[in-house]
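Entry:
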Amino acid sequence: MAAVGAAGWLGGLAGARSGAGALVAVGLVGVLLAVSIRLLGDRAVRLGAACLVVAAGVASATLLRGEAVDSSVVADLAQRRAVADVTGTVVSDPAVIEGPWGRQVVVRLRVDAVVARGTTYALGALLVVIGDPAWERADLGSRVRTTGRLAPADDAEVAAMVTGARPPVRIRGPDLWWRGAAAVRSSIRQSVAGRPAAQRALVPALVDGDDAEVPADLEQDFRDTGLTHLTAVSGTNLTLVVGFLLLLARAVGVRRRWLTVIGLLGIVGFVLLARTEPSVLRAAAMGTVGLFALGNDGRRRGLRALGVAVTLLLLVSPSLATSAGFALSVLATAGIVLIGPPVQAALARWLPMPLAAAIAVPFAAQLACTPVIAAISGEVSLVAVLANLLVEPVVGPATVLGLGGGLVGLVAEPLGRILGTLAGLCVGWIVWVAQRGATLPGATLSWGVTPLALALIVVLCLATAAAAPVLLRHRRVGALLLIGSVLVVLGVPARIAAGPARWFGGWPPPGWVLVACDVGQGDALALSVGAHAAIVVDAGPDPDLVDRCLDRLGVTEVPLVVLTHFHADHVDGLPGVFRGRSVGAIEATPMLDPDVGVAAVRDVARSASLELTAATPGVTRTYGSVTLQVLWPDLPEPVVGPGDGSLANDNSEVLLVESHGLRLLLTGDVEPPGQARLAAALPGLVIDVLKVPHHGSRHQDLDWLRSLQATAAVVSVGADNDYGHPDVDLLSALTADGTVVARTDTDGDIAVLAGEAGPHVVTDH
């Protein structure tokens, strides 16, 4: 059955990629099989015939479904942008998106009647509806009617989109089972309503895949630590829920066939709770495979069940053949079934069986998925096995308690909240592991996506799978490998090489919002916009220093570089930002002065195939959880300066930043005249964190700086500089107002974190 499932998968891939050529290829294989029939045994012939039939069936289904969508009446109407009345059943939960036209809602509709251009069509098609917030009330399973303009869709499974859809008119509400599932989902959310935001969002995601409120930065942390499967419906969810249900049934005396009935009812209930979308059906199938793999002869039974599940899923939904999620689910399950048992047996020779299983399962799943993850993201997670090992003890309790909180909350809300609180506490540990793991120096390893790079990672994974059981069976070798892996992931070698400060300081601190890099006499700031991603504001005078600082922060993606002005102490380090990192854009002040700095920046931008753009006053942009607003200079278009740099400082780009509830003012080297104009333009401006202008020079509009009421101030300055920076009187005045002042010349790298009572400053020295 594993071979048959693999043949069906290949047939689906061929059908999606090669079109009609796939059927020709399958036919040729059939001819070769017929010619070779006398050379093969009966069993081999039957197996070959089964593989051929399934491959042909999946390839044919892929082609026929694609043709049915492309040639449908709805697709033709969409090409002509026709306005249509559509009637159908809501088949997905409404998803809210924020677009250029405001708040919109996206929902999928299985239609059976379309009226367009005076003609009524009775048909079956899947449409994506984009409408106003009234669509948030479109319950899953309800039958509705709406009117909108049809447009072509990118999804091969979707016949068309309905844009500008009018509010839905309900014809019939959801059936009883959908209402029941909705009530349980609502009760799960209610049971954790009083918990912190991350727990409040993650418990429903863990139990039933309701991830609508999971923050983007937390999702990125989960991706970096190999815990993404916990934020979506996976086979693990079903295995935990149904496994717990079976344990309860056994405890009350249920035996034999009735256990099978209860297990099947549990699977159906789980699918209804998590929704009947392809990803949920896939997860249910993989979870069922996991149940088969339990008990005696689990490896053989699990592999057979996996083959059956893959075959049925592909025949029902051929588009899964090209789905990355499907590939990851199948490979993870296959890894657990094939690689897990020998690794577990090897570890069990010198470790307790529960601990051996806790290590072997995530190791096997992650190893099997690594090539696909590398192909998708260009990265390999080194911390995934450790992270999964740390959270595994609480995943089961969190899932069962979260579901229990929802079910019990339907009849006794206070008791449901108690269970929800316990689930939230378990989830709090998972969140901490994900956030801390994502900041580790060894969290991810960049990997190419070229055919050679992917072939190499496949070979390495196969070699590791073969060698692991042999090596791990020996106590000393296994212990050294496990301890060494943990040390590498924790970045201990890098910390030792970097000196005592890195070892004891735990740099960077988790949850950093802003880091002022110690780059000597100059500015280089990093604003975190997610795991391994940061906006860089200025680059300092030395490429090596800014590169080293960003390396320590684990920054590999820079969506935006902002250069406040073109003096050497702010732009000469720019090449270091590009070392081993992807940079999305470069923006600078519109005052093009001095010309030497402008030319140098343009050369760097040109070599990276980027265009140097000028900041526009008043423009606001959002990157992840960070919002930037350009406050200064008030130049509507680029201006060529005198070339000597005399106008550069006072025309520095000034940014107001909002991140994680903090307001930060990044001032470049703006001088008193510019500061006075900012004070006049923005009376009453209050911030949390101030980047002190011009390295703490004594030339400041002190009244304006004090009026900002900053809780913390950061001075980016070089030790023993010849300019007298920072000015002692300036620092004393800020300190006297209760501002905590940190400076790079004495404190090293400076990190600002968002605390409950405001900003919190952590230094590297």
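Residues 590 and 638 are 4 Å apart (CA to CA).
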